[in-house]
Amino acid sequence: MRIVEIERKSLETYVKVQINLDQNGKVEVDTGIGFFDHMLSLFAAHGGFSLNVYCAGDLQVDGHHSVEDIGIVIGQAFRQALGDRRGINRYGFASIPMDESLTEVSLDISGRPYLHLETPKLSERVGAFDTQLLEEFLRAFSMHLGLTLHVRVLYGRNTHHILEGIFKSLGRAMKQAIYIDTSSNQKDMVPSTKGMLD
Description:
- This protein is α+β, with helices and mostly antiparallel strands.
- It has a single domain, classed as Imidazole glycerol phosphate dehydratase, domain 1 (Ribosomal Protein S5, domain 2).
- The chain has four helices and ten strands.
- The protein has helices spanning 34-47, 64-82, 133-145, 159-178, and strands at residues 3-9, 13-20, 27-30, 50-57, 91-98, 101-108, 114-118, 125-126, 129-130, 148-155.
- The strands form three sheets. The chain has a four-stranded mixed β-sheet, with helices on one face. A four-stranded mixed β-sheet has the order 5-6-10-7, with helices on one face.
- The longest helix is centred in the C-terminal third of the chain and has 20 residues, at 159-178.
């Protein structure tokens, strides 16, 4: 089973993340930022994995440290849970409509972190969530997982819909990429001609 628990403590945040990549449906998120809780819950639900996130952060300052550090720890948790990536699909893609918005996510669990993010102009906040922190979360997640991540919102007007489409697409694309087809003769192989993903 690909199960990991990680804690991270700093002077700004305490973050605890548990993931189970092979168990669908158990999601508990408490970050102190309601809209972000909702987005992480969508990410896990559409990704088909269990996720437990707790964060006590310096929200009296703002949400930056909490959101970034959660991205760091979730990325680290995925990296550990995937191990040497043996048997995974490696690549994932999803195109998700959310009312008037349309989002595409393409990703590669390559060991080479990279983020490309394109969105229409976003409102400054959705609830208590500062929308500038979307990029901080995605960058931290991709850096600490070793993920090449391309996120493109082709169009959209409602910021809530745009962000929801991004997290749903990210979950769906990750679900493809981490999947191991046990019936395949590739299930014991690292999906790279180099023999490693790092």
